[in-house]
Design goal:
This is MOSC domain-containing protein. InterPro entries: MoCF_Sase_C, MOSC_domain, Pyrv_Knase-like_insert_dom_sf. There is one protein chain. The protein starts with a strand and ends in a 12-residue tail after the last strand. It is mainly beta and 180 residues long. Helices cover 13% and strands 32% of the residues. The mean pLDDT is 95. The strands form three sheets. It has a seven-stranded mixed beta barrel with strand order 1-6-5-11-8-7-13. Strands 4-3-12 form a three-stranded antiparallel β-sheet, with no helix packed on it. It has a single domain, classed as M1 Pyruvate Kinase, Domain 3 (Beta Barrel), CATH 2.40.33.20.
Length: 180
Amino acid sequence: MGGTVTAVSSNSEYSFTKPNRAGIVLLAGIGVEGDVHAGVTVKHRSRVAQDPTQPNLRQVHLIHEELFAEVGEAGFEVAPGELGENITTSGIDLLGLPVGTLLHLGDEAVVAVTGLRNPCLQIDNFQDGLLKKLVGRDETGAVVRKAGIMGVVQSGGVVRPGDTIVVELPEEPHRPLDRV
């Protein structure tokens, strides 16, 4: 099972969107070099306010490019990096991966999947009404979060658009993703 990196993005300043780059460097245990969310402990403002000593389980944010087409059908235009992700992918059901999945990106980098991104109101500030397309409910009434997944860097390396992604599932039993 695998896919492709379609875009990479980073930003050294707090901003909802992240500009696309020719490549990003992943640093083991830290995240994306130079990105505002890189670090051993939490960097997202709301989490820092709660407890700045929490481990950073959100070092790398990945979104599947297929989501852009889905929200496009509802009239929203979203491009890679605009939802704040570091890595945009194609060909992988990111939301269906279990916790602990290893994503081998390019020649060296490895990201361990920690959970789902919990979409926030900033999404509606970006495009009014988009949040409702990224958070919904399934047929049982359970909350479904579609705004991508989060991970921590296991092995560092350069990641560029066009790089392959190899998915390595953890041993069973698999634990479904939950928000982190």
